[in-house]
Amino acid sequence: MKTIQRWMLPALVSLLAASAFALAPAPHPPQATTEAAAIRKVLDESVAAWNRGDIPAFLDSYKNSPQTIYIGGEGVVRGWQQIRDRYTKKYVTPDRGKMGVLKFTSLEIHPLGRGYALAIGQWRLERTAANGGNVGGFFTLTFQKTPAGWRIIVDHTS
């Protein structure tokens, strides 16, 4: 009987340890979830601003800095003010028709380290044929956590 007990004790300890490990919550840093939610909120607010024709509020998602970069089909635009000028020139019309309705889908947020994150996804702009028709593509946004919250520092949209 003592032989069986000696054999069972290590097995029992191993079984209990494995059970405790299996029942423990998976490591998931709550900060990462909170950061992703905050970035999604910035993007949701940005889309809402765009869809009401509010370019200044739309640009609140960008860091107001000369180092902020936009990269698109027309090339590289450097600086928040120049990015604002680009959006205003390209999309603002009296009837806001060129702005259409913006939608983001397939959104993924990837932390890059302390205070930085990457957002990737698809964008779609629904417009009438007279205003350029529907367009869409993909984006990669590099976010930085600033005193004002999460802000885009590099926008590569294609």
Question: What is the global morphology?
Answer: globular
Distance between the termini: 74 Å
Indicate the percent of residues in helices: 25-40%
- The CATH class, by name, is Alpha Beta
The description of the largest β-sheet is: 6 strands, mixed
Explain what this protein looks like in three dimensions:
It is a single chain. By secondary structure, this protein is of the alpha+beta class. It has one domain (27-157): Roll (Nuclear Transport Factor 2, Chain: A). The chain has helices at residues 2-23, 30-51, 55-58, 80-91, and strands at 69-72, 75-78, 101-113, 116-126, 135-146, 149-157. The model is unreliable at 6-30 (pLDDT under 50).
Descriptors:
6 strands; 4 helices; single chain; alpha+beta; globular; 38% helix; six-stranded mixed β-sheet; 158 residues; Nuclear Transport Factor 2, Chain: A
Short description:
The protein contains four helices and six strands; from the N terminus they run αααββαββββ.
Give the SSE layout:
Elements: H1 2-23, H2 30-51, H3 55-58, E1 69-72, E2 75-78, H4 80-91, E3 101-113, E4 116-126, E5 135-146, E6 149-157
Parallel strand pairs: 1-6
Antiparallel strand pairs: 1-2, 3-4, 4-5, 5-6
